[in-house]
């Protein structure tokens, strides 16, 4: 844990320039607006260690699969999130010497991510190799109000010299992905156009043919007065720039406001984008930087109204949760049902594709409570629309009759992960997709979704499970062989308890939903049955048989569920027996050693107990938690949050708090030594769950919210907001009381600490703790 950034409730602050942490800082200070985003790279040139990253949502490249040993069923390609044209660049030349912080003495460096108002600010003084000293300030936004726009205000003041300064704002499409299987460049130029104060560069992705027009326009002022300065366009392949030369006196401040636009052919006709981008730039440039900044602040105020969590008495915890909420809102706004939430969002390229089971298992609960219903519905519809491809995917692996296996990683529904133990075996992802339907309906009460879309997905998933199990004559039970559970530090195991459990749960839920849809809308049900060739009697009988006769590994002595068959054959060492030099295992040990070890990457049995807690008594949950947690290395960012929630449920508030800190400050403190690749966006939703479901004890049961609040000793008070069925609730937990307020005129029934109460805008609730 590094504690490199300063603790502040609304800001992330870096003081002093440490090139060693630059890539971590670039990730942490990333900006995004759901449509576009990027890492906190510098505007001016930087020859030090950096990972350049600008991303346009939904734009990807199918990078041909590269594996040593091809296996039938492998996907043809891995979908790469594409590093797109760099719109932030402003090259600075001081009397002919390029400003490059890697070659300067850097003084008073400060970077600040203002989460309240959504901007990134950087200040520094730099002394170049020849002794020229400049003072620089830059402020940058990715506009929420205009989600195809970005803007930068960049000012520079020569401190100890006067002379020629050349600023070259540019759009550079000659970019690469660090992670490219064949070191290929993924973009080709379509066209470019420059004019005196800007230009547009239109690029096309190879193979997928997405086109993105990236444009810029700028204003220059000197000591606050607008200056018209002759500028000269410079172009080369995949690049446009404008050289602005000025003679500046010592102490004068030059400010360049650069407005940028990113229009994608997903949203505009490609052949009109050049003109549309110019119009767009005119508009935002006319608006001006200050107005854009004010709009940005206002848009964030709106977001925070629904999203903020206030932790009193613990600034590090407060900063952590706000950072997570901020990044989630930067990544996905729910406006567009073709988009999803990549594990790294707009903060890095790692993990490729945009959609993992992370979305359903972790992100859906966050968006259900903090955004309008259509946002989580769009996340569900994304999978509904990809059902055809999930059926194709299952067919490729030998399944039939409409069985669906959703991909482990995808951009457009096609599987694009190519490690066999994950692609073919980590099939529990199907379960999370079904669980999200259940979760959405349980939370919103939108049962119509089941008839319109949900049931079709559920039947296809249940069909998959029904074909994936086999009957074991020896056990006289159904078994599921050759799988990888959520714990990816074990592959090709038999009877992963979590996978068997969620498979059976899916089939049970499917039967339940069939009943519901049949009685609510028989005609619709019959139409679906006919359309997908559902042999109701035979297929449901098969589901029932599996439900009844599934095998679950269990140890009678320890009275715990076994993560998989023979888990106890492993040498039962504990994480506390590992030395610091062994960690993280994934970086220090051979893969073979990890596979044979008892160490668990992330919640596995405990993930199941988290999802299905109502089916198990508290002692069962405790025994399994006490057994598995000491064996878990939490090397997936998705792990600490689930442990935090379970620890809170078990009343182990101190452990819950430790896990919370770890999950919420995972990236800020670079716990897993990998923040330089990007932030762990999807697990940030898990952080939110650990506050609201963990400390707030929030659950939804029988169409009603319930709260079992508790406070870590370190906190004076906690308050959070949740939207529920059209009402916004504000829950305030202090050492003395629980106060719940709502904007709803109608009384809302709730449960607090097990007792039913009601709350309305007229009568808020105030209970002693
Ligand atoms: C985890 C997976 C997760 C993926 C993307 C992996 O490290 O083990 O469960 O889906 O990261 O976040």
UniProtKB/TrEMBL annotation:
Active-site residues per Swiss-Prot or TrEMBL entry: 488
Pfam families (UniProt xref): Glyco_hydro_65C, Glyco_hydro_65m, Glyco_hydro_65N
Gene3D superfamilies documented for this protein: 1.50.10.10, Glycoside hydrolase, family 65, N-terminal domain (2.70.98.40), Maltose phosphorylase, domain 3 (2.60.420.10)
GO molecular function (one): hydrolase activity, hydrolyzing O-glycosyl compounds
Residue intervals of the Glycoside hydrolase family 65 central catalytic domain: 322-689
Keyword terms, alphabetized: Hydrolase
Domain Glycoside hydrolase family 65 N-terminal: start-end pairs: 13-265
Binding residues annotated for substrate, in chain numbering: 357-358, 601-602
Superkingdom field: Bacteria
Protein family according to the UniProt entry: Belongs to the glycosyl hydrolase 65 family.
Protein name: Glycoside hydrolase family 65 protein
């Amino acid at each position: 844990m590094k504690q490199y950034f300063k603790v502040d409730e609304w800001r992330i602050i870096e003081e002093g320039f440490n090139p060693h942490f630059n890539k971590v800082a670039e990730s942490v200070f990333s900006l995004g607006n759901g449509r576009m985003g990027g890492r906190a790279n510098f505007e001016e040139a930087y020859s030090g260690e950096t990972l350049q990253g600008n991303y346009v949502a939904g734009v990807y490249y199918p990078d041909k699969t590269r594996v040593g040993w091809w296996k039938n069923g492998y996907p043809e390609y891995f979908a790469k999130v594409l590093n797109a044209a760099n719109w932030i660049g402003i090259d600075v030349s001081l009397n002919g010497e390029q400003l490059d912080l890697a070659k300067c003495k850097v003084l008073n460096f400060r970077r600040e991510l203002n989460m309240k108002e959504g901007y990134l600010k950087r200040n520094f003084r730099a002394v170049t190799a020849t002794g020229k000293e400049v003072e620089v300030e830059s402020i940058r936004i990715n506009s929420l109000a205009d989600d195809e726009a970005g803007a930068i205000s960049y000012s520079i003041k020569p401190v100890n010299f006067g002379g020629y300064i050349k600023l070259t704002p540019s759009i550079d499409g000659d970019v690469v992905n660090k992670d490219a299987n064949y070191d290929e460049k993924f973009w080709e130029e379509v066209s470019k156009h420059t004019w005196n104060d800007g230009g547009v560069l239109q690029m096309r992705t190879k193979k997928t043919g997405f086109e993105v027009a990236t444009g810029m326009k700028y204003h220059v002022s000197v000591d606050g007065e607008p200056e018209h300065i002759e500028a000269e366009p410079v172009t080369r392949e995949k690049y446009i720039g404008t050289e602005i030369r000025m003679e500046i006196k010592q102490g004068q401040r030059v400010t360049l406001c650069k407005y940028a636009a990113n229009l994608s052919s997903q949203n505009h006709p490609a052949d009109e984008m050049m003109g549309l981008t110019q119009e767009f730039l005119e508009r935002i440039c006319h608006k001006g930087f200050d107005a854009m900044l004010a709009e940005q602040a206002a848009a964030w105020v709106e977001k925070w109204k629904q999203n903020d969590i206030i932790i009193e008495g613990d600034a590090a915890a407060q900063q952590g949760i706000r950072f997570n909420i901020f990044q989630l809102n930067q990544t996905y706004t729910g406006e567009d049902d073709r988009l999803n939430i990549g594990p790294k969002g707009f903060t890095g390229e790692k993990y490729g594709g945009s959609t993992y089971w992370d979305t359903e298992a972790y992100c859906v609960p966050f968006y259900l409570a903090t955004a309008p219903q259509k946002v989580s519905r769009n996340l569900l519809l994304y999978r509904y629309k990809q059902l055809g491809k999930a059926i194709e995917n299952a067919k490729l692996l030998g399944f039939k009759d409409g069985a669906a296996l959703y991909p482990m990683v995808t951009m457009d529904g096609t599987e694009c992960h190519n490690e066999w133990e994950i692609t073919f075996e980590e099939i529990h992802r199907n379960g999370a997709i079904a669980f999200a339907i259940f979760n959405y309906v349980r939370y919103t009460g939108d049962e119509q979704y089941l008839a319109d879309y949900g049931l079709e997905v559920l039947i296809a998933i249940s069909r998959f499970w029904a074909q994936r199990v086999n009957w074991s004559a020896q056990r006289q039970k159904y078994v599921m062989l050759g799988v990888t559970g959520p714990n990816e530090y074990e592959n090709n195991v038999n009877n992963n308890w979590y996978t068997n459990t969620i498979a059976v749960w899916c089939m049970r839920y499917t039967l339940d939903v069939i009943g519901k849809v049949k009685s609510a809308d028989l005609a619709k049900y019959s139409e679906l049955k006919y359309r997908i060739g559902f042999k109701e009697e035979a297929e449901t009988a098969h589901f029932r048989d599996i439900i009844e006769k599934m095998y679950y590994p269990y140890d009678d002595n320890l009275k715990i569920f076994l993560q998989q068959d023979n888990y106890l054959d492993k040498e039962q060492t504990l994480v506390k027996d590992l030395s610091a030099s062994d960690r993280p295992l994934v970086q220090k040990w051979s893969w073979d050693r990890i596979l044979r070890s008892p160490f668990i990457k992330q919640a596995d049995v405990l993930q199941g107990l988290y999802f299905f807690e109502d089916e198990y008594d508290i002692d069962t949950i405790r025994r399994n938690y006490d057994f598995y947690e000491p064996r878990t290395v939490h090397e997936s960012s998705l792990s600490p949050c689930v442990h935090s929630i379970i620890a809170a449920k078990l009343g182990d508030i101190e452990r819950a708090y430790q896990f919370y800190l770890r999950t919420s400050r995972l990236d800020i403190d670079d716990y897993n030594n990998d923040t330089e690749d990007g932030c762990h966006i999807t697990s940030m939703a898990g952080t939110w769950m650990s506050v609201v479901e963990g400390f707030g004890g929030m659950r939804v049961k029988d169409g009603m919210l319930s709260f079992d609040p508790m406070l870590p000793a370190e906190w004076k008070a906690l308050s959070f907001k949740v939207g529920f069925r059209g009402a916004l609730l504000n829950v305030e937990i202090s050492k003395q009381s629980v106060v719940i307020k709502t904007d709803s005129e109608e009384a809302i029934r709730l449960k607090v600490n097990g007792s039913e109460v009601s709350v309305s805008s007229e009568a808020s609730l105030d209970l002693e703790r």
